[in-house]
Design a protein that fits this description.
Chain B: Pfam families: SCNM1_acidic (PF15805), zf-SCNM1 (PF15803). Chain B: This is Sodium channel modifier 1. Chain B: It is found in: Nucleus speckle; Nucleus, Nucleoplasm. Chain B: Keywords: Ion channel, Ion transport, Metal-binding, mRNA processing, mRNA splicing, Nucleus, Spliceosome, Transport, Zinc, Zinc-finger. The complex is a heterodimer of chains A (1189) and B (230). Chain A has 10 helices and 88 strands. Chain A has 1189 residues and is mainly β. The longest helix of chain A is centred in the middle third of the chain and has 18 residues. Chain A starts with a strand and ends with a helix. Chain B is mainly alpha-helical and 230 residues long. Chain B has a domain of 70 residues. A 3-stranded antiparallel beta sheet of chain B has the order 1-2-3. In chain B, strands 4-5 form a two-stranded antiparallel ribbon. In chain B, helix 1 crosses helix 2 and helix 6 crosses helix 8. Classes of the chains: A mainly beta (1189), B mainly alpha (230). At the A-B interface, strand 75 and strand 79 of A face helix 8 of B.
Chain lengths: 1189, 230
């Protein structure tokens, strides 16, 4: 078995975010890291939306990220610390839209190690040096400079090592143009290590240490070190030199401290706390992240506490001495992993969990949310099923954490935002938009054609009908367009109407009894087909006159469709006309004056064409801000067939030859094609029974269905409110739609949940979901209310006699106050406090049908829906609950298995009984009319009893803790939390569970899925996926020792089973995989193994069906590994073999980077493969569309 | 796995050689005379006390012993009382070879090489009956519910529980001599037997069912449920 890995949705959680002018223009961009992905975002200050410019998978773990700019420079570079043992400096190239590796310096071993630098990065604020530090001991400083050609240079590393020292944080201190200085939060554990009494360990203090890079002597000295009172968690640089007082702010538990050299005394300020907080008042408060904003005249910091409150920190200075730290409450947003304040007044908040937000600051102290980029991180559990009875399955994923968690339904398709819907008098046939002048940014008219009339609507503040546009209203319209600079053209069955800017109208009438059947129009050319297949060509001359070409062309058959490309900028005309004929052919006809109306090429089609569209796609951005022209894309001829198939063919811009055809079935109806604009590029909207958008995004072609109802006709639409929209017709309505989330494969519908969802199961009869939600460090609703009441009473009691009334009022206000927990966070109850609910939910409407609150400190860990053979047709829900679980050091008071009967057609839970067990019941699975429950390390069979579940059989030989149970036939596959899989056979005859095989690797299994009777796929918490299989000669009829006297030595080698599974495949994904499922994603597609990851990614592993394919992709992967090495310097092969050597899996994510390689490299690689670059990318596209999207 | 030998002590080498030959010859132990345990060791299926032996060599040695030989006689005497000709399966094997194969020595050598090349011993702890030699070694049920034939196999298997006395029908099924299609009532009875066994009832050998002390029952559950009528 050979598999191919494809990512469907990249990870969405953000680990770092930095901002700067990465493209070298005035505009600020944000670079975020999503674990192994580097992404460049550009917030649009006008619309308040964040656009993704570039996403690159780096095949390594990004551990730190910093922006830096050379002194006097205007462009920011990106410094990346990763697990590659190398420091990498990247530059963004806007013309090519790619990150370029400027420097890559090796300093140590690869992997995330304690003493290999990479964990912390700090840059000198003046851009002269960068420090890269390990968690322990090693620190390296690189001096950055520019050479004669103004290119960035990097020095050899200067060591600043100190043994036995742990590092907590490193920042560059702003000292102006004095020698660069770095401040580190350190802990020297040498004494503590050597003192056996433990006294030294108790007294060891954290220190703030300054390292100075002496530029004159070219070495680093440990300048000054000072023990700290409190244990700090991070540092903030204070601007220095001419901009501020310099120094650092130390954020520690409950306090923030300012420190600097010289006479500056320490300034300390406590971190404000919420009044009347339900949190444990003894618990300390820390800042978790910060952002600095600096202009020429002022600076301030924003720091966020772990509750989500953001404070604005300013420093009061008196002649360069800081006298005071001021903290002012700013706002509360979900707890962030990183924040960026932009010059345009936007605050980008990369949430720790859940959706990321861009806020617009109205004035400091007040802001409103502008855009939200959805993130499914953390994604705990996923299931793919067609519960809504659509033709394609939906992905049901439980994601988020605490009060921000949600159940999301993911459907393949682009999210469509409906901007306006208006009813029309009658059913229109077609719609177009036209601008009034070529320079205009927005469209002026919407022209709607009916069976016997044409309606013209003008676009302004409102959309209203006009009659003075010059368009002929008493006839249907075939097409209309802007002609030349400011004229309009309307093609209708009896002629062509040319409307000049001054409303003069020229008409061309069809000869005799002929009418116009089809037409194609662009800015300068009009081609019409008359009845009988005669083509008439018009072109606009420099005076703005529309002239007919001297000859007409008779086609061999009736014309069914035509298309003209847009006129390329700077040229007179488009050179090609595509004509689809009734004889199942498409012909390319030249419009060049030298061979006008001569056929150039022809393509036979499998069915009659319905619609044609020539577009230019695939080029990188045409013109960047510097006026530098990027490469122009290829011309593509899109052919929509009557049988619902879309063909995309490359049209040679010189010869007009057609080559490299890609096919895709879109739906049951004939495919109609419309040209629209998406993110500044041309795209094609294809309409069959479903509407699809074909567009190029980040140098990859996407063909994605719109998650919207069936449309009949569409046209591009640009207005002030909606710069890149679509106007479309559906029955008798006119709709204005916008497609914003380009590049996304799934559109999401989210239903909020109360606590972190842990698992869910689907009730097969009603298709309802039963979700268990469990949070640690949380109060249940009942406890929360009780605590509130208690606090209110205390408030009243604490007040003096005369203040009683006031206090009572305050208490009442406090009781009535209800802050939304999704923003303000849930109160933290402390270690060992758990809250859980069991929820029955309709996944289609998203409404909760039933909700069971468990008691405080009962944590639900497992759920199953099953039937028992002794009770007939009733369905039961079993929930495994731990009681008083403390995670570290681990202790548990026991557990329960709650049994509920599903009544009322699967909508209500009726409590039956609860069964006490000794340990945490972490896995439940139905098995032969009974249930298997993993209670800690015990595997048990339970049957339904009258007062509790009855234990019928037990196996005590599982190694540590049962985390999952799968069953097939008499076989039970148990996943242990750290010992991989154990195959157990149930013998009904002897009522025994007997282990007969196990795995040879210690895998920390998170999830598993059966592939067939002998094969199981599993994922572990380190981000590996494996497939293991029992060898064919495995015998599951083994007996326990028949003598019955089981002795200590009567066990297999190291307690293992005598038979061992074989590893079929190993692969390191790089993100913890939390669900695996074998399923088909597209109707009629083949089966694949779908996985979802903790960071919100979704990927699939697909099997190769032919040896040839496998061979081809193996070579593509091999060439790409050498020709296109990963960006952060980690070797691709060693990354995919992080824990186990990669086996039998080819990395499609790497192979697909072929499309983003430079053309000459593409050519080299494809020559090695005996193919052309389009052939290679076609193969890449084919394998993706065969299994997924 | 073998280690490279050092030294030239011939006696040791001879011992090893002998052991190797013994291993090879061990493949002549018929499958139903030994059981492979889940820890890779072997139990002799002939001797009533089921001795567990660590290696094939030890099993071979055991099989040459007096005790084993006497129980062998007992075993075959008991196992096929209906058969008129009492035959050791080895002899059976040989006689079959003689009649069917022209070059018995060649076949024998081939068999020995084959078993020598086996990576794992092909013993199966499942005792199966003589009349169904076509059952493959790794017979497994592919349906969630065990098939009737499999049920029969399981219940007919030699097990340490003295089950046979308790359920005459089950015993009957163990000794039935042809895989004839079962009557629905028989099948129900068998099913009922398995249901009772798997819910923790043990036949006590006197035709009654007793509760397994390691298994939980409902408090009002004193007697095993009766065989459902139809």
């Amino acid at each position: 078995m050979f598999l191919y890995n494809l990512t469907l949705q990249r990870a969405t959680g953000i680990s770092f975010a930095i901002h700067g002018n990465f493209s070298g223009t005035k505009q600020q961009e944000i670079v975020v890291s999503r674990g192994k992905i580097l992404e460049l975002l550009r917030p649009d200050p006008n619309t308040g939306k964040v656009h993704t410019l570039l996403t690159v998978e780096v095949f390594g773990v990004i551990r730190s990220l910093m922006a830096f700019r050379l002194t006097g420079g205007t462009k920011d570079y990106i410094v990346v610390g990763s697990d590659s043992g190398r420091i990498v400096i990247l530059e963004y190239q806007p013309s090519k839209n790619m990150f370029e590796k400027i420097h890559q310096e090796t300093f140590g071993k690869s992997g995330c190690r304690r003493i290999v630098p990479g964990q912390f990065l700090a840059v000198d604020p003046k851009g002269r040096a960068v420090m890269i530090s390990a968690i322990e001991k090693q620190k390296l400083v690189y001096i950055l400079n520019r050479d004669a050609a103004a290119r960035l240079t990097i020095s050899s590393p200067l060591e600043a090592h100190k043994a036995n020292t742990l590092v907590y944080h490193v920042v560059g201190v702003d000292v102006g143009f004095e020698n660069p200085m770095f401040a580190c939060l350190e802990m020297d554990y040498e004494e503590a290590d050597n003192d056996p009494t433990g006294e030294a360990a108790a007294n060891t203090q954290q220190t703030l240490t300054f390292y100075e890079l002496d530029l004159g002597l070219n070495h680093v000295v440990r300048k000054y070190s000072e023990p700290l009172e409190e244990h700090g968690n991070f540092l903030i640089t204070v601007p220095g030199g001419s901009d501020g007082p310099s120094g650092v702010l130390i954020c520690s538990e409950n306090y923030i401290t300012y420190k600097n050299f010289g006479d500056q005394p320490d300034i300390r300020c406590p971190i404000p706390r919420r009044r009347n907080d339900l949190d444990d008042p003894e618990r300390g408060m820390i800042f978790v992240c910060s952002a600095t904003h600096k202009t020429k005249s002022m600076f301030f910091f924003l720091a966020q506490t772990e509750q989500g409150d953001i404070f604005k920190i300013t420093l009061e200075t008196d002649e360069d001495m800081v006298t005071e730290i001021r903290l002012k409450y700013f706002d509360t947003v979900p707890v962030a992993a990183a924040m960026c304040v932009l010059k345009t007044g936007f605050l980008f908040v990369a949430s720790e969990f859940g959706n990321h937000d861009l806020y617009h600051t109205v004035h400091l102290g007040d802001d409103d949310e502008e855009a939200e980029s959805s993130s499914a991180m953390p994604l705990e559990e996923g299931d793919i099923a067609d519960l809504a009875n659509e033709d394609t399955p939906q992905l049901y994923v439980a994601c988020g954490r605490g009060p921000r968690s949600s159940l999301r339904v993911l459907r393949h398709g682009l999210e469509v935002s409906e901007m306006a819907v208006s009813e029309l008098p009658g059913n229109p046939n077609a719609v177009w938009t036209v601008r009034r002048h070529i320079e205009d940014e927005f469209d002026a008219y919407i022209i709607v054609s009916f069976v016997n009339a044409t309606l013209v609507l003008s676009i302004g503040e409102t959309v209203e009908e006009v009659t003075d546009s010059g368009f002929l209203g008493t006839t249907p319209t075939l097409s209309c367009s802007l002609l030349g600079d400011d004229a309009l053209v309307q093609v209708y069955p009896d002629g062509i109407r040319h409307i000049r800017a001054d409303k003069r109208v020229n008409e061309w009438k069809t000869p005799g009894k002929k009418t116009i059947v089809k037409c194609a129009v662009n800015q300068r050319q009009v081609v019409i087909a008359l009845t009988g297949g005669e083509l008439v060509y018009f072109e606009m001359d420099p005076s703005g006159q529309l002239n007919e070409y001297t000859e007409r062309k008779e086609m061999s058959a009736d014309v069914v469709c035509m298309s003209l490309a847009n006129v390329p900028p700077g040229e007179q005309r488009s050179r090609f006309l595509a004509v689809g004929l009734v004889d199942n052919t498409v012909r390319i006809i030249s419009l060049d004056p030298s061979d006008c109306l001569q056929p150039l090429s022809m393509q036979a089609l499998p069915a009659q064409p319905e619609s044609l569209c020539i577009v230019e796609m695939g080029g990188t951005e045409k013109q960047d801000e510097l006026g530098e022209r990027g490469s122009i894309g290829f011309l593509y001829l899109n052919i929509g067939l009557q049988n619902g198939v879309l063909l995309r063919t490359v049209l040679d811009p010189v010869t007009g030859d057609l080559s490299d055809t890609r096919t895709r079935y879109l739906g049951s109806r004939p495919v109609k094609l419309f040209r629209v604009r998406m993110q500044g590029q041309e795209a094609v909207l294809a309409m069959s029974s479903r509407s699809w958008l074909s567009y190029s995004y980040q140098s990859r072609f996407h063909l994605t269905p719109l998650s919207y109802e069936t449309l009949e006709f569409a046209s591009g639409f640009a207005s002030e409110q909606c710069p890149e929209g679509i106007v479309a017709i559906s029955t008798n309505t006119l709709r204005i739609l916008a497609l914003e989330k380009l590049g996304a494969v799934f559109n999401q519908v989210a239903f909020p949940l109360q606590y972190t969802p842990r698992k869910f199961v689907i009730h097969p009869e009603s298709n309802n979901l039963i979700i268990i939600e469990t949070d640690h460090n949380a109060y249940t609703e009942a406890t929360k209310a009780q605590r509130k009441q208690q606090m209110a009473e205390e408030m009243v009691e604490a007040a003096g006699e005369d203040e009683r009334e006031l206090a009572a009022e305050m208490a009442a206000a406090f009781l009535n106050e209800n802050l939304p927990e999704s923003i303000f966070g849930a109160p933290k109850a402390g270690n060992g406090q758990w809250a859980s609910v069991i929820r029955v939910m309709n996944p289609i409407q998203g409404n909760t049908l039933d909700l069971v609150q468990l008691e405080q400190n009962e944590a639900a860990f497992s759920v199953a829906v099953c039937r028992f053979s002794n009770t007939g047709e009733d369905w039961y829900v079993l929930v495994g609950v731990a009681k008083d679980l403390i995670l570290n050091p681990r202790s548990v008071a026991g557990g329960f298995v709650y049994t509920y009967k599903l009544v009322n057609n699967g909508e209500k839970l009726e409590f039956l009984h609860k069964t006490p067990v000794e340990e945490v019941p972490a896995a439940i699975a139905p098995f032969q009319g009974r249930v298997l429950i993993g209670v800690g390390k015990l595997l048990r069979v339970y049957d339904l009893g009258k007062k509790k579940l009855l234990r019928k059989c037990e196996n005590k030989h599982i190694a540590n803790y049962i985390s999952g149970i799968q069953t097939i036939g008499h076989r039970v596959i148990v996943s242990d939390v750290q010992e991989s899989f154990i195959w157990v056979r149930y013998k009904r005859n002897e009522n025994q569970l007997i282990i007969f095989a196990d795995d040879t690797y210690p895998r920390w299994v998170t999830t598993a899925s059966l592939l067939d009777y002998d094969t199981v796929a599993g994922a572990d918490k380190f981000g590996n996926i494996c497939v293991v299989r029992l060898p064919p000669n495995t015998n599951d009829e083994v007996d326990e020792d028949p003598t019955g006297n089981k002795a200590l030595w009567d066990r297999g080698l190291l307690n293992g089973a005598s038979q061992k599974a074989e590893v079929i495949m190993n692969y390191h994904v790089g993100e913890t995989v939390l669900s695996l499922q074998k399923t088909t994603l597209i109707p009629g597609g083949s089966e694949s193994l779908v996985y979802t990851t903790l960071s919100g990614g979704i990927g699939i592993l697909v099997p190769f069906t032919s040896h040839e394919d496998h061979d081809f992709f193996q070579h593509v992967e091999m060439h790409l590994r050498s020709e296109h090495p990963p960006l952060c310097g980690r070797d691709h092969l060693s990354f995919r073999s992080y824990y186990f050597p990669v086996k039998n899996v080819i990395d499609g994510d790497l192979c697909e980077q072929f499309n983003s390689m430079e053309p000459n490299k593409q050519k080299n690689v494809s020559e090695e493969l005996d193919r052309t670059p389009p052939e290679v990318s076609k193969k890449l596209e084919d394998i993706r569309t065969r299994y997924a999207f | 796995m073998s280690f490279k030998r050092e030294g030239d002590d011939w006696s040791q080498l001879n011992v090893l050689k002998k052991r190797r030959v013994g291993d090879l010859l061990a493949s002549y132990i018929p499958e139903d005379e030994a059981l492979m345990l889940r820890d890779g060791r072997f139990a002799c299926a002939i001797c009533p006390h089921r001795p567990v032996l660590d290696t094939l060599a030890m099993l071979t040695a055991h099989r040459a012993g007096k005790k084993h030989l006497s129980s062998l006689q007992l075993f075959y005497g008991k196992k096929q009382p209906g058969k008129d000709v009492e035959q050791n399966p080895r002899q059976q094997n040989e006689s079959r070879e003689e009649t069917t194969v022209e070059a018995p020595l060649l076949t024998q050598t081939r068999l020995i090489t084959q078993s020598a090349l086996h990576r794992a011993p092909h013993y199966n702890s499942c005792c199966r009956r003589k009349y169904r030699p076509e059952v493959p070694g790794s017979s497994v049920s592919r349906s969630p519910l065990p098939s009737a034939a499999e049920l029969e196999l399981q219940s007919g298997k030699i097990s340490r529980e003295p089950e046979s006395a308790a359920d005459p029908q089950a015993k009957e099924s163990a000794t039935v001599s042809a895989p004839a299609p079962m009557s629905p009532s028989r099948r129900r009875a068998l099913d009922h037997y398995l249901t009772l066994r798997s819910s923790g009832w043990i036949p006590d050998g006197r035709g009654r069912w007793v509760k397994d002390e390691n298994v939980e029952f409902d408090s009002d559950e004193e007697e095993p449920p009766d065989l459902p009528l139809d």
